Structure formats: structure tokens, C-alpha cells
């Protein structure tokens, strides 16, 4: 009875805690001496307001508490900041981002468009009057000044609030300085638009010209008097924003960075080849000078370039290339104090690193470079795809695994301190290590799920598909068959089948408590299993992934007789929703119902960098888009299908759902549509998120007649 009551209350808890994200510490910064750790976290599992915290000498204290600061409200956040938060999938309010000087003494953050500064060595936060609503404030390394963006212009102001200077003003309404463009923030992973020099005397600044980019208009039909929001969105095959880099000095001097026009040599050709450098993938400025990476439009070449800050001249340091597409490794490139480069390095089927001339071990799949302390490099990697560990390397100690025990681990580093953030089957913990020895904990204040996930880990079939099977806690073996629900994502860049408890594992267990055997499988295209596995979806984003889901289903049923293959449904969101809709279109003999949430049904509508990576240019390879889009295949639907979509979604716009629904209607194919008013690609409204789970269960049970 207790489990039943917990299951009943879970949807409301899931929504109230915003997927159990509230109360979780994140965005750690460790001071260079290892003495101070900064982070953001709310005060509990249902508190949506994030505070800025300091951990020092084994104690936590709040540095900035938004409810006590007053000033502007969340409704007054600048549009550029709202966009930044949506790209970052931010689910809380308050202090959600911050930046520090070199020594982590001066901290700047924006709150309701206002600029705030606080010191870690004492004193209360104080407000600085900026030239306009603030986005992305960042102190100079010496802590004397703070740069910020307002109205697309880059400013710098003294930390005491004096001498506000305009460094770079947009030449038109489509131009910004110091901000990221849509593609860089959404698909590349570069969220920043400017970087201070170590000497605090100049900045490397991105200029974004959106004038070539087609615009989209995101309306709110529930409020017909509210004008639509306009945004630049470069869809597959259309023009990108023009991104350039500039060295800007507070005295007004400005030098353009001379980025090569194209990769003209040693560039792999293909059915579609475009060697023009359209993407600035990384940028930074270390003690050796500015270092940038640029990638070609077809994503088969990347140049790592040094920049002369006096002239803007660039020099090629490394040409990375791939005949399919070049995977971007977060945190690279890096230069150590000695000048030793740390760059991605693919050997055989291993995505690894090369640290100077030393490669990471074969079979160790590197996920991210976390940073360096002196000549010691920290990174995350795994030999088994369901686990990710923190590793370090220096020439004296070699490769050392820092984290222990099954799970998904990451870290922040500084001095002799490692802040180890670990997700395991028991939940999440944050451990502060000094010289490798646990010295304290940073509290995780998230609520414990009312339902405890109890997955059975499986390795299925010839491709050794990593899967999890969830059964109802009340199920007695041999008591009869259960309808099956597949609950995958199985798309590029995300894994669900890991040795860690997450919100998605709790959701899968909740569906199991409703009477389903829930199967989750990570198929081809997901990370952590090498280059060949990741790139096997090139040219076809659907067929191999569906094959893996079907193979895993049949293999699981062969070993677990409780799975009823005569009653199989599939649900998912985003790529998972696309997969669910594709499943009932392509394989109605296997799948008997589907729920597709936030599904990108028309691949031509998604952005350039993401979609062209897999399918090429739609004008050159239209057959790949035709094969992978669902709209053209709507007439094949014979099974119950529920389409769910946020009306305010600016990532996978509601046009995807509307075009697909119209095609289904034109073909005379019955289906159900559930529009979510005011919802973006993240459904955060409590009533909507809570009731949606219950409505999905009702749809599945009616569709499967159980």
C-alpha cells in the first residue's frame, strides 16, 4: 500500500522539484590555491531560487541570497539572458550563473538584469549601475574591472562602479558583441562570447551578425494580444550567422582576428563538401596568448589556431579532420603552463586525448577535459559505457583514476583540491578532496524520489546493447505477462543507461508501477562506445536506432517471459519523441502505440550544425532528409499516436508537430494532439508537468486495451 501511495504522489513531486534538480549544487569554481569553492544551489528540493554559496574551511555560507537583495524581478530579465538560460536548459531562477577573477576573490553575477558584485573575503553584495540590463558579467583576472553585455554592446566598468566604458557597439539591430550565436550555444556547446586576457588589458570578443539568418516567430496563441517573439534560427541548408573575433582593448584599440577562409588542403571530400570555416567552436586566452578553434561548414575539418593579439594574425597549430564528421570534445584544446597542447586524438575506435606526445590508453573513451592544475590534466572518461570516471595525468604519475565505484563522476579542480560530483545508484553526492583524501562534503539538498528506481542492467544481443529493465515493485514472478513500454532517448550525445540514479530512472520506475515492464536501451549513435558506434547513424538517423530498440526488446523478452510482445508501446521526448513516432510508422508489427513529445519530425527545420552533421546539406543530399523526416511518411500510421508539444518551444518549434499532424490528417490517419500552452522544450510548469505523466498513462492503457 505504501508503494502505491508513493506512486500516486510521484508526478506532483517530479514537477514540484523540477525533475529533482532543485537543491543540487552545481557550477563549481575552485580557487587556484584550493582554499575556496564557489557554487550555486537553492535551499531545498522545492525552492526554485538559486543562491551563490562559498565552501571554505569545511563550512558552507551564502554569499548572495536573491530574496534579500531586492531590485529587479525575474520578469525583468533581458531577452538575451532568457535565451541564454533556455539554451543552458536552466530550470531555476535567482543566481544561476556567475564568474570570478583569477583568485576567486571577486564574484560578479546578474540578477533581474542588474549587475551585482560580492567578495569572497568579506562584505555584502553591492549593486553596480550599468549602462543597461546586464547579460554575462565577468570580472577581469585582476579583479579591478567587470565586463558585461547590454543591448548587444560590450562594456567594461570598474569594480567600484566607476568609469563605465563602451568597448564595442553593434553596427545594426542584427549585430551583437560578446554573446554567443544560436548554433554555438545550442549545438556546439560554446555559450560564451568574450574572454579576458590574463593581464586584464584586453578581451577576445565574438561579433555575431545575424542579418543573413532566417527569422522565426514564436507566438503565444493563448494570449492573442501578445506580439510574437522574433529570433534568428539557421535551419539546415540555410545561412548561418557571420561570426568573427576581435581583440578589443579598454583604450579603444581594436584588431580583427584573421581566421582562414577555408580548409583548402587535406580536407576529406564527400557527397557534400563545404570547407568554409563558418563555426568558431572554442576560444580562450591563456598565458601563451589567444587560442581558438574553427570548424568547416561540413564539419570534417577543424583548425586550432594561435592568435597574435597585436596584429590578429593566426598560425595553424593542428588540423583535425574526419571523413564523416569531426566530434567536438568539450574542454579542448588546452595548453598547459609549459605550452604542452592537450587536443582530441582518435586512435583506432577510441575517442581519446593527446597530451603533448602522450595518448590516453586505448579503449578509454574520453568525454571531457575538466581543466589543469600546473602540468596535471584532469578529464572524464570510461572503459565501460555505463560509467564515467574522473582521471588525471601528469608525466610523473601517469594516468590515475580519481573517482571510485560505479557511477557517473565529474569534477572541478584548483590547487590541491578536487570537488568530486558523483551520481550513483544511491543518488548524488559532492565530496571535497584535498591531496586525494576526502576532506568534506557539499550538501545535496534535493528531495529523495518517492519511488526508488530498481532497474535490472542487461547487455543484449550481438551488439551488446546496454539496457535497463524496470518491473513493478509489486510484481510476483510467474503471475502473468506485463505490457511493455520502451522509454528511450537513444540520440546523439545523451545516455540514459548508466550506473546512476537520475530523474529519468525514477520516471521509468513510476511507469513500471502503473503495470508496465519498462525497457530503456542506448543504441547506436549514443556516446561512450567509440567512433564507429557514434557515427553509424550518418545518413540515416532512424533505421539503425530502431533496429537496436527492436533487437533489445526481442532479446529481453527471450530472457524475461513476463514481457508481453503483443502489447508494446514507446514514449519519448525530443529525439526520443522522434524515435517513438518513427517506431509506429516504420514497425507497426512491433509497436502498438506511441507518445511523441517535442519531436523534430521534419529534419529540415532543425539547425545547421546539428542536422548537417548527420544528413549533409538538404539541397545536395535531399534523400537523407526525405528518409529521416516523418512528415512524408505520415500515411503509414496505423497505430494510436499522441503528439505532445510546447507551443513556446524555440528549439524544436511547434511547426514540427503541426506539419506532421496536418500530414496525418491529410492522409486520413487518426491521432491525438496535446499542445502545451506556454511550455518551451523544457516543461517546467508544475500542473502541466505533473498531469502530463498521468495523461500519458491513460493514453497508453486505452491504446493497449489494458
In a few lines, what is going on in this structure?
The protein has three domains: 24-169, TolB, C-terminal domain (Neuraminidase, 6 Propeller), CATH 2.120.10; 172-328, Dipeptidylpeptidase IV, N-terminal domain (Methanol Dehydrogenase, Chain A), CATH 2.140.10; 456-704, Rossmann fold, CATH 3.40.50. The protein has twelve helices and 44 strands.
Structural description of this entry:
There is one protein chain. With 706 residues, the chain is an alpha+beta fold. The chain folds into 3 domains: 24-169, 6 Propeller (Neuraminidase), CATH 2.120.10; 172-328, Methanol Dehydrogenase, Chain A, CATH 2.140.10; 456-704, Alpha/Beta hydrolase fold, catalytic domain (Rossmann fold), CATH 3.40.50.1820. 18% of the residues lie in helices and 35% in strands. It is built from 12 helices and 44 strands. The chain has an 8-stranded mixed β-sheet with strand order 37-38-40-39-41-42-43-44. Strands 1, 2, 3, 4 and 5 form a 5-stranded mixed β-sheet that branches. Strands 14, 15, 16, 19 and 20 form a 5-stranded antiparallel β-sheet that branches. The relative contact order is 0.09.
The CATH H-level superfamily of the largest domain is Alpha/Beta hydrolase fold, catalytic domain
Mean pLDDT equals: 96
CATH topology of the largest domain: Rossmann fold
Q: Which spans have pLDDT < 50 for at least 5 consecutive residues? A: none
Major sheet characteristics: 8 strands, mixed
- CATH architecture annotation of the largest domain: 3-Layer(aba) Sandwich
Oligomer kind: single chain
What is the overall silhouette?
globular
Number of helices: 12
Radius of gyration: 25 Å
The total count of strands amounts to 44
Q: Describe the strand arrangement of the main beta sheet, using strand numbers.
A: 37-38-40-39-41-42-43-44
* Helix residue percentage: 10-25%
- CATH hierarchy class name of the largest domain: Alpha Beta
**How many structural domains?**
3
Distance between the termini: 22 Å
Strand proportion, as a percent range, falls in: 35-45%
Question: Structural class, judged by helices and strands?
Answer: alpha+beta
